[in-house]
Amino acid sequence: MSFFESRDPVFDGYVLDNAPLKQLAAGFDWVEGPVWFGDAGCLLFSDIPNNRILRWTPGSGITTYRQPSNYSNGHTRDREGRLVSCEHGARRVTRTEHDGQITVIADGFDGKRLNSPNDVVVKSDGTIWFTDPHYGIMTNYEGYAAEQELPCNLYRVDPVTGQMDAMVTDANCPNGLAFSPDESRLYVADTGRLFSDDPQHVRAFDVGSDGDLTGGDVFYVVDPGFADGFRVDTDGNLWSSAADGVHCISPNGDLLGKILVPELVSNVCFGGRAKHELYVTATTSIYRVSLNRQGTQHP
Question: Is 135 helix (H, G, I), strand (E, B) or coil?
Answer without folding.
Answer: helix
